[in-house]
Specification:
alpha+beta; TATA-Binding Protein; 5 helices
Amino acid sequence: MKTITTSLTANEAVQALLAGIESENMRVVAHINGQANAAKMGKEVPADQILEVFRPDFAIRVWSACKAAGHDIPLRIHVYEEGDEVKVACRLPTEVFAPFDSAELNEVGVELDGIFNNILSKITGN
């Protein structure tokens, strides 16, 4: 799991990640906003948001390489507050796909690792 502590607020980190997702030509499949959902119940919780990210052409490649790996897509980026820190965590694609022991799937993972690292760089400026 790649975890980055950022100086951005959680909302700023999410906005930077959304911009990175768009610049990498990926898609947000779902945006789960835990604190907004808790607020609907009258509860206040620290920031906790999940971005589910993928793209149809990559899904087709994953299914072709290993149909069972379809269970693990879309991939997730988790933005959360822990104490006074904002963290962004992501299991990189090669890590997600490793248990399937497929050379073809690993190639897709390597390509996606580069894309996800570029997305994550939007919160660090690297």
